[in-house]
Amino acid sequence: MTALGKRARARPARGAPAGFRLFGRLRFGYLSPAVIVVAVLLYLPFLWTVYLSMTRYDGLGSPVFTGLDNYAKLLDDPALLTSLRNTLLWVAGTTLLPVGLGLLVAVLSHDLRGGAWLRLPFLLPYALSGAGLGLVWGFILQPDGVANQILTFLGMPGGDASFLADAPGNTFAMIAVWTWQQLGVNMLLFAVGLQSIPRAPIEAARLDGASGWSLFRHVTWPLMRPLTTVVVGLALVASLKTFDIVWVMTQGGPGRNSETLAVTMYRDVFNADQYGYGSAVAVLLTTITGLASYAYLRHQARKETH
Amino acid sequence: MERSLAPPTPLHHHPCKEAPMLSTRLRVTALSTGAVLVALTGCSSGGDSAGGKSELKLYNDKGAWSEYFDQMGALSKQSIGLGMKPVGYTDEPTYTAFIKASLRTKVKPDLFTWTTGGRLNEIVGQKQVAETTALWKQAIGSGDLTADLAKYYTVDGKQYCVPLNTAYWGMFYNKKVFAQHNLKPPTTWDELTKIAETLKGAGQVPFHHTTPSSLFSFVWFGQMVAGTDPDLYEQLGTGKASFTDPRVVKVMERWKSMIDAGWFANPGDKADPADHFKSGKAAMVMSGTWFNTSMTQRGLKQGDDYGFFFVPNVEPALPKTSLIFESGPLCSLTKAPDPKASERYLKWWISPEAQEKWSNSRGDVSGNPKVKAADPELSAITKQAADSKNRLALRFFELVPAPVLTAALDGLSGFLAKPDTYQKVLADIQKANEEYWKTQGAGG
Questions:
Q1: Could you tell me if residue A59 is inside a domain?
Q2: Is A132 part of a structural domain of the chain?
Q3: B186 and which of A107, A152, B192, B266 could share a cystine (Cβ 3.0–4.6 Å)?
Q4: What is this structure's pTM?
Q5: Do A170 and A93 share a domain, yes or no?
Q6: Of A60, A268, A274, which to mutate for an interface test with B (greatest number of B Cβ within 10 Å)?
């Protein structure tokens, strides 16, 4: 270690960050196992998927190259349009509801005596896995299920509603379930954020007479922006790849009306044995996720600098 | 999912832990070498010996049947000295992907279950499935298998795999509900509709849709098309007929009118059809004879609690009764770890001794006509099915190729939720049908 340290100090890499200077050229050696693992397990399969998306392939034998046929077919596929619409609903729903409500609960319970206890019930559903969540709520929302029975008992409308049958109502129902689970973790992140922002500007604003909404809007909220960027960014990516809850609750049905892009991809590859077409959906999904994340983060970064 | 073959490495109890003086590099090297060695020894699968395998692994998508597979493993070990352990999957697409992948890699299963029809043709086309022509010839000669059944295991004149199970499809009915309303199993479609009317009139839901998932949304479709026009039904499987054919449209209209009449339980119900049936929520469930296993598991007895009848033809003028039938193959590969052992196992599997155990433990019919079912009702079903007045029709699930099936399951589950959409549903299935056969050579 000391020998390495001396050598690194003797010949510091010009312009390299301090951390890298320590190991000099050897750093490539140290990095290579991780780089190789990522390349083999992530980049190669991705390139293979891109290749498959330009073929016709049933998982057996050899793929037949068909150029951009699958992409042309994508444009002409009404099921894909439904899938895109549902994915957009998921993006809008999950960035608004779990994040928005999480923030609301965090703010309302902040500085409150016993606030931690108030937050606890919101956090508990987070302990459930996506599949378990879907299974339980699938039973609650099934026809004549618990939800219908409760509504009937209370004499409220919806006693005979088919929550998981009609589109886009079934997607809304699933977003509500997702919100029920995800609200807690977003709330927790915001609660931590609220506790870690500097007190001085808030106290100063209070002295200047700011309180309630205006204090939150003009002081607290801007101070929390870095955290909000992360929370919304995570919600955005998670919503774009929504799969497990939909798969367990409706399998994308009935009649493909609740499919998301991730469900369409799975269905085309593993149920319909259309590996090529499914790969094209995968590439489309990756492109959308990548572009959306890039656009969002860039937008946020600009806001930070201005 | 199967766990890693390597045994757990007890690193925290490693004797080397007592040597704190070892340098980090040495420790890392020792641990890595150890891990590699453990992985290598773990990879040489258990049960191997110089003379071949003494225990085979049977990969299957019937995870719920592990108990019955285990019983078969114990029996085979006793009978032919070759044990078997099941590796059961419960998710069908995951299982299919695994088997397909094994055709491309060196990790081959000893034995695996599959489906007949287009999917069997598909994997046989890869020239890796072990041929069983000699085995079939011998078994037909000795009366352990029938030439009728061989048809479903034949690709280009040669046989592949052996029947894992055989099942007939028909209607399970709740005997108590039938007795309560003075009803008897029907012999014509008219009688069946009268039963439904009577039950509905008395506030009892007549039929279950054999859902909850879209996997079985094909059941009534297949039965009604085959019972209306069995030739058309077969043509749908080979791309020679269109799903928008007026005769298919008529079947959908009839089905829709039955749904509109309130004869079916809600298709979105998440409860298992067997539970639904047990609770009496629906008086009848259309299913394969393997549904007996679900009944047995729920403590219901055939003959006392429930009965079974073959669904009469929709079209009374047909000369023979269309009888939906399925048979799942048990296969091995030419490059299986021990092909001889796998072949020996397949040969034993179709023997009367094995089939008697397999059929009676699950309470299902056997592909071996020599096997006497312990259950007299089941015996009667087998006898009735063998009647020359019947015409066997392969289950829709195996009849059509995967992309068409997927489109059909999606479409039909959509139809169950919204019966008004039947024309669009048929058009969507036909689109997938045309696309598939366009790439395969129509009518192939």
A1: no
A2: yes
A3: B192
A4: 0.80
A5: yes
A6: A60
**In a shared domain, residues B341 and B351:** yes
The ipTM value here is 0.75
Q: Do B134 and B81 touch, CB atoms closer than 8 A?
A: no
Give yes or no for A66 touching B (CB within 8 A). Answer: no
Q: What is the domain count for chain B? A: 2
Domain check: are B124 and B194 in the same one? no
Which amino acid is present at B193? T
Three-state SS at B101: helix
Highest mean pLDDT, choosing among A23-27, B19-23, B292-296, B391-395: B391-395
Give the CATH number, domain containing residue B423. 3.40.190.10
Q: Is the pLDDT of residue B8 over 60?
A: no
What's chain B's average pLDDT? 85
Distance CA(B409)–CA(B397), nearest Å, equals: 9
Q: Give me the residues of A, 194-233, that contact B with CB < 8 A.
A: none
Flag whether B347 is in a domain.
yes
Question: Do residues A14 and A77 share a domain?
Answer: no
Mutation target vs A (from B279, B413, B434, B436; most A CBs, 10 A cutoff): B413
Name the token pair of A118: 């108030």
Task: Give exposure, A100-132, as e/b (b: 16+ Cβ within 10 Å).
Answer: ebbbebbbebeeeeeeeeebeebbebbeeebee
List CB contacts of B183: < 8 A, sequence separation 6 or more. Answer: B177, B195, B198, B199
State mean pLDDT over B176-183: 94
Q: Is B29 inside a domain boundary?
A: no
Whole-number pLDDT of residue A52? 96
How distant, in Å, are the alpha carbons of A265, B46, B130 from that of B38?
37, 14, 33
Within B158-299, residue ranges assigned H as helices are 175-180, 189-201, 219-228, 230-237, 246-260, 273-279, 291-297
Mean pLDDT per segment of 10 residues, for chain A of length 306 residues? Answer: 45 51 74 91 94 93 92 92 95 92 91 86 90 91 88 88 88 95 94 90 87 87 90 92 92 90 94 92 95 90 73
* Chain A touched by B93 (CB under 8 Å): yes
Q: What crossing angle do the helices spanning B246-260 and B230-237 adopt, rounded to 10°?
A: 110
Residue in B123, B407, B425 closest to A60 by CB: B123
- Give the CATH number for residue A173: 1.10.3720.10
- Whether residues B272 and B139 share a domain: the answer is no
CA distance linking residue B291 with residue B273, whole number of Å: 9
Q: Which residues form the domain of A240?
A: 71-305
- Asked if the Cβ–Cβ distance from A144 to B122 is below 8 Å, we say no
Name the token pair of B290: 């393997």
Q: Measured between alpha carbons, how far is residue B48 from residues B71, B330, B334, B343 in Å?
A: 21, 22, 18, 16
Residues A241 and A139 placed together within one structural domain of the fold: yes
- Tokens 């058309």, located at residue: B232
Cβ separation B402–A253 shorter than 8 A: no
Tell me the torsion sign for CA atoms A136, B278, B254, B261. negative
- The reply to whether residue A254 touches residue B425, judged by beta carbons under 8 angstroms, is no
- Quote the number of domains for chain A: 2
Comparing alpha-carbon positions, the chain A residue that sits nearest to B424 is A255
CA-based diameter of chain A, in Å? 81
Q: Find residue A16's DSSP bridge partners.
A: none
